[in-house]
Amino acid sequence: MAAYIIRRVFAAVLLLLVVSAVTFAIFYLLPRAAGQSIQSMAAQYVGKSPDPDVIKAVIKNLGLDQPIYEQYWHFIKGLVAGANYSFGPDPAHCSAPCFGYSFKTHTAVWPQIQQRAPITFSLAIGAAVIWLITGISTGILSALKRGSIWDRLAMGISLMGVSLPMFFTGLALLALFSFNWLHIWNVHYVSFVDNPAQWAWNLILPWVSLAFLYSALYARLTRAGMLETMGEDYIRTARAKGLVERKVIVKHGLRSALTPLITIFGMDFALLLGGAVITESVFSFQGLGAYAIQGVTDNDLPIVMGVTLLTAFFIVVCNLLVDLVYAAIDPRVRLS
Amino acid sequence: MSDDTHKDAATKDASAAAKDTAAKDSAGKGAAGKAEGAREFLSVRDLRIHFDTDDGLVKSVDGVSFDLKAGQTLGIVGESGSGKSVTSLGIMGLHTSDRARISGEIWLDGEELIGADKQRVRELRGQKMAMIFQDPLSALHPYYTVGAQIVEAYRVHNKADKKTARKRAVEMLDRVGIPEPARRFNDFPHQFSGGMRQRAMIAMALVNNPQLLIADEPTTALDVTVQAQILDLIRDLQKEFGSAVVMITHDLGVVAEIADRLLVMYAGRCIERGTSEQVFEHPQHPYTWGLLGSMPRIDREQTDRLVPVKGAPPSLINVPSGCAFHPRCPYADVPPDNVTRTERPELRETTGGHFSACHMTREQREKIWTEEIAPKL
Ligand SMILES: Nc1ncnc2c1ncn2[C@@H]1O[C@H](COP(=O)(O)OP(=O)(O)OP(=O)(O)O)[C@@H](O)[C@H]1O
Ligand code: SF4
Ligand SMILES: [Mg+2]
């Protein structure tokens, strides 16, 4: 097991390097390969029709006039050790990990991420807890009572869940409970540290609307996995031993049925950590998703790149965790 | 002696206490079980197991009857899809689908199982009757160690602490011939070879000294040398524990040596039944002839061998009219008046205890067997 963990961690670190290189290439190498001049590249970082001095400053700050490997080195060094930007009146130090510097807003990206991450994390973690509990339990009950009214009802609702667009559910909830009908919530983000009760209270609607989609999906996946597992030979063996059905289900069925969900959950959760774009915008939360949207609409490349890199980082880390959990559950993985 | 043990096992509360004594006495019990004239331990009467599917009613088992005495072995043979597994799962009460329609009677040691309290059947499962499955890899749970799975089987029916159960499991692993059992106890199924997995399955099935062991094609997934070892093991254990064994296979060669009685199934029905000797020496049904013809023989060239049964097994939803075997039977026109296609042949007794279901007269069958079939086998 120890050897397995070391191998996986090592592979994850390598993967992170690759991911950073690819992200770098997308933003720095591709435009040049496509024949864009460094002047026009630099111009993108500061907005329309800038004066030549500003462009020069950007080129200098980003090192666009240097060879590509120098630029990559610069980029990696920034991530590990931080970087200095002298742009505009006051020079800025972008401390490690430096995810870039937005010339348009005159701010480093990392502090923004730090400020916004708790909002996104609160959303993601709370919603994940809700959807795992509701989705999985619904799926299990549906599978065990296959064909019953309960099963049909649950699967009908879950079909709605997977087909209704996220913003519809969110807006509908807002309309019902906040704007038009019941004026229960005036949803705004309150930091957990400031007031945990208010934090949770204000997150209920976003959590529910986000979790609805995933619950529906997870209920269907759990149901399918459970049905498949309960038809396995080893379940028949468990029954042949004379085990009571409850034990057959819990001890022999659930564990195998839920294992594949771990992979899917790891991916879903990692993507959410990088920003719940739609939920954040429906509820006007200033999380990472909103930040990414800001980067895209303002064509502010360092922001887009920073959030992309961060999301990639979450995916790699979650994948690593998934691998480790998998190995803990399935001896065939860790012993092969 | 054997009757005493049965009584003990029948009372639920006494059974746990009796277990240890039963284990110690098992050698003696074996001898008693073999005694002539012992009463039937397992009686199946007109068993029907149908499945209500979207395509129609699947008559997987359609009126099967047989008896089995303690210490004896019944071989059930028939090609794929003839209903062997469905029959054995039916005895174990393992048809959980609500689409299964089960009727008839199954008497286990004087206790009727069909319609019995589910809880009661569950108690009997793994304790009084146990089962070994065809593919030991998929029949063992991949996430639990072999030892833990045997321990679990033991503790379902015995109020034993973990240590005692572990000791018992290691003992069983040792008994079925797993080397270094205490170490292999902690292995997962995928770390075992195919033969060892089946040995572990056997250890698991026998951990509670069941009086009935059902082996559903226990050697099909194994290679030939291992097959023989597993069969020897089952035979030895049966002698030692005196249990009744139902050995299911589609290979007559497998049961030739170990079965006392044979039952040949075709399309969910029994078409021939008798002692091993009767069925092997004087088979009465054309389908049995075909099965005998497909038995591998080392001393004969493949070419001058009898052609095994031609054609595909019939659908169990639209079973052929009359004799279900008629589309494939080379002798379908021997009985007069097209009777094979219109009337279902009943099981009739030829000689004492030897039954077969065929419209041909005894003389006709005798003639074909001695003149056409036997010389080619
Ligand atoms: N739950 C079920 N629902 C519908 N049909 C079933 C079910 N279980 C078994 N059958 C059908 O019953 C028939 C007999 O199956 P069974 O498994 O008993 O065959 P078998 O004699 O054991 O064959 P094999 O040698 O392949 O194991 C098959 O045609 C199978 O499709
Ligand atoms: S009844 Fe007719 S078809 Fe059936 S086995 Fe006998 S001869 Fe063949
Ligand atoms: Mg079978």
TrEMBL record, chain A:
**CDD domains to which the protein is assigned, alphabetical:** TM_PBP2 (cd06261)
Q: Where in the cell is it found?
A: Cell membrane
Query: What is the membrane topology here?
Result: Multi-pass membrane protein
GO cellular component terms attached to this protein's record: plasma membrane
Top-rank lineage group of the source organism: Bacteria
The answer on whether this UniProt entry bears the keyword Methyltransferase reads: no
In what residue span(s) does the ABC transmembrane type-1 domain sit? 117-326
Q: Decide whether keyword Transport is in the record.
A: yes
Q: Where are the transmembrane segments?
A: 9-30, 119-141, 153-179, 199-219, 261-283, 303-329
Alphabetical keyword list: Cell membrane, Membrane, Transmembrane, Transmembrane helix, Transport
The alphabetized list of GO BP terms reads: transmembrane transport
Q: Which Gene3D superfamilies match?
A: MetI-like
Among PANTHER family, the record links this protein to: INNER MEMBRANE ABC TRANSPORTER, OLIGOPEPTIDE TRANSPORT SYSTEM PERMEASE PROTEIN APPB
Record-stated family: Belongs to the binding-protein-dependent transport system permease family.
Output this protein's name.
Answer: ABC transporter permease
**Lineage summary:** Bacteria, Bacillati, Actinomycetota, Actinomycetes, Kitasatosporales
UniProtKB/TrEMBL annotation, chain B:
Entry annotated with the keyword Cell membrane:
yes
Q: Which residues form the ABC transporter domain?
A: 44-292
Fetch the PROSITE patterns from UniProt: ABC_TRANSPORTER_1, ABC_TRANSPORTER_2
Question: Record's InterPro entries?
Answer: AAA+_ATPase, ABC_Ni/Peptide_Import, ABC_transporter-like_ATP-bd, ABC_transporter-like_CS, Oligopep_ABC_C, P-loop_NTPase
Q: Name one GO molecular function term.
A: ATP binding
Under CDD domains, the record lists: ABC_NikE_OppD_transporters
Keywords carried by this UniProt record: ATP-binding, Cell membrane, Membrane, Nucleotide-binding, Transport
Q: Where is this region: Disordered?
A: 1-31
Indicate, by first and last residue, each region the UniProt record lists as having compositional bias (Basic and acidic residues): 1-11
What is the protein's membrane topology class?
Answer: Peripheral membrane protein
Keyword Magnesium included in the entry's annotation: no
Protein origin, superkingdom: Bacteria
Where does the record place it? Cell membrane
Q: What are the GO cellular component annotations?
A: plasma membrane
Q: What is its main location?
A: membrane
Which BP terms in the Gene Ontology apply to this protein?
Answer: peptide transport
- Gene3D superfamilies hit by this protein: P-loop containing nucleotide triphosphate hydrolases
Protein family membership: Belongs to the ABC transporter superfamily.
Name of the protein in question: ABC transporter ATP-binding protein
Q: What is the organism of origin for this protein? A: Streptomyces montanisoli
